[in-house]
Structures are given as C-alpha cells and as structure tokens.
From TrEMBL:
This is Putative ABC transporter ATP-binding protein. The keyword Cytoplasm does not apply. Keywords: ATP-binding, Nucleotide-binding, Transport. The keyword Hydrolase does not apply. GO terms for molecular function: ATP binding; ATP hydrolysis activity. PANTHER family: ABC TRANSPORTER ATP-BINDING PROTEIN. Coiled coil: none annotated. Residues 9-238 form the ABC transporter domain.
C-alpha cells in the first residue's frame, strides 16, 4: 500500500550486463520523489536510455530491484506500466494512421476508456489539433515528435519519462514541451527527463543526477549541487604581460595565460568565497604594481559542473 511519503520510484542495485560483456548499468541506486522533476544528465552511452528501458519493461535487468508506486515491478509490471508514460528518442509510429486515431489507440492500449475531450486537450496543448486528421507520414519531423509526446500523455501517466524529448527539434516545439512540463508539474505528475540541453535542466529540474559509464556519480538538489560544486572563474586582462605570478598572490589558485597577458583564477566553493577572493586578488595586484585593464568573471553553470564531473570520472577510470 502506498503512503504519501513513499517514493514513486525506488531503484536499488540496478545492474545490466549485455551478452558481449558491456556493463550498461553498474549498481545504480536512485529514489524519485512523487511530483518532482528529475533531470538525468550524461554523455552518449552513459546508461540513461538503458535505465529508462529497465523501468519501462523494455530492458531485462541483470540484477537489482525496481519498485514503482510501492510495488516490485518484477511481479507487477503490467499494472504499473499503465501508470507510466514514455517519450522515446526514436520515432515509433504507424505512419499511415491519423494523428487523432493514433493518440486514441495509445490511450486504449494502456487501459483507458475513450475520452475525446482529453484527446483534444492534449493535441491542442502541443499545437496538433489542426493536424488531427493528417496521416502521420505527411507531418514534419518536429510534428512527428509532438505526436510521440501526445501518445505518452494520452493515458494520463503519473510517472513520465522524457528521453531526449527536444533533441534535434525546432525552438517552437521546445517551448511547447517545457510549457507542457510546467502544466504537468502543477498536476502533480512526476517527470524524469534526459537532455543534452543542460540549460533546460538547470531551469526546469528540482534535482539532478549525473551518470557516466553506467555509474550514477551524483544525485542532489539542483541548487545545493550548484552551491556545493560551483566555482568562480575570473580573468584579469593585464595592461602589460608578466613572466611570473606576484608573491602576494601565492595563496590563491591563479595561473598565467596568453603569454603572461592574462591572470586566471578558478576557485571558491559556491558560497561566495570566490567572489571575495577575486576582490582580494584585485587589491593585491594594485599593491604589487600590476595594472589590469579588464576583469571577466562568471559563476559555474550546471553545464560546467556536469563537464567537470565527467572529466574527473574519466581521469579516475
């Protein structure tokens, strides 16, 4: 029996090893809270799609457990699957069917009765209503992607997977998709998405996970992750090149670049320490008689943190 405090998805020790020996998932533990938007980030081949496939019943796992809605999927897969929606990367549509009929069929496939008003609502939300009687084969690539999204929403899932839903599509569809996610959040739907557009995860997600080579490297609240792992970067453009770092800057993480014409700082810890140290460096440069003509400063984005984590993992492997 579910309780209000129970996670909607609980994955423990999930491992998938293919017959050739490739370990696509390596002892993954992940808990998803009901009603959250969770972004799973990782490079190509990291294991994102395999993880989604395991939950959706399309990949047979080697070991571990998956519990959804309080039930073990190993014994209750068919019932649980009716409550899960998936927007896959690849198009899987009957190209000679019409848009409206395909969406209605998908709704029935998951045990939902006919509901023309709901189908219309979904199609309108994705700017597909005017195309409802078109054969899918006649639609543009972006419109076909919209049909995939509509199919996933047709049976009103409680848990929705979006596997690179906006990869290679137009800006208008991306805007529609994120408006749809906002609407789903308000309805209490739990959304798990993978995306190459890290700025979208930064804007939309409540929590973020980073996966690489089948291993889940980190899961944290987005804001906490950026605060804990974020860094300040600053470039001091010097009025004249120098051949060595002044002694007064010995305690700071600084380097020289551009043949001594730029002093680079990368430090801090996401708590404001970096900004304070940049100010101290500026003062120390002035006191050391080193003039600078410009200062470029920025805080780490989620993309910076993601790239840094993956690079460190690669070096450690």
């Amino acid at each position: 029996m579910e309780t209000i405090h129970e996670p909607i998805l609980d994955i423990s020790g999930l491992t998938k090893v293919y017959s050739g020996g490739l370990k696509a998932l390596d002892n993954v533990d992940l808990t998803i809270r009901r009603g959250e938007i969770f972004a799973l980030l990782g490079p190509n081949g990291a294991g994102k799609t395999t993880l989604i496939g395991a939950v959706c019943g399309m990949v047979r796992i080697s070991s571990g457990t998956i519990r959804a809605f309080g039930e073990d999927l190993a014994g209750n897969w068919r019932t649980a699957r009716q409550r899960i929606g998936l927007v896959p990367q690849e198009l899987g549509l009957d190209m000679f069917d019409t848009v409206e009929r395909q969406i209605g069929y998908s709704r029935g496939l998951f045990g939902r009765g006919p509901d023309p008003a709901r189908i219309e609502e979904v199609l309108r939300s994705l700017s597909l209503w005017d195309k409802r009687n078109e054969e899918i084969r006649k639609l543009s690539g972006g419109m076909k992607r919209r049909v995939l999204i509509a199919k996933a929403l047709a049976h009103d899932p409680e848990l929705l997977f979006l596997d690179e839903p906006t990869a290679g599509v137009d800006v208008e569809l991306r805007r529609d998709m994120w408006r749809q996610i906002d609407s789903l959040r308000e309805q209490g739907v739990t959304v798990i998405l993978t995306t190459h557009y890290i700025e979208e995860a930064e804007e939309m997600a409540d929590r973020v996970g980073v996966i690489d080579k089948g291993r889940l490297l980190l899961v944290d609240e987005k804001e906490a992750m950026m605060k804990r792992l974020g860094r300040t970067e600053a470039h001091f453009i010097l009025a004249s090149p120098i051949d060595r770092i002044p002694d007064a800057l010995g305690a700071f993480p600084v380097t020289l670049a551009d043949d001594g014409a730029t002093l680079c700082y990368r430090g801090g810890d996401g708590t404001g320490k970096g900004k304070a140290e940049v100010a101290e460096i500026a003062t120390a440069l002035v006191h050391s008689g080193v003039a600078f003509t410009a200062l470029e400063q920025k805080e780490s984005s989620l993309e910076d943190i993601f790239v840094d984590l993956v690079e460190r993992q690669g070096l450690a492997a």
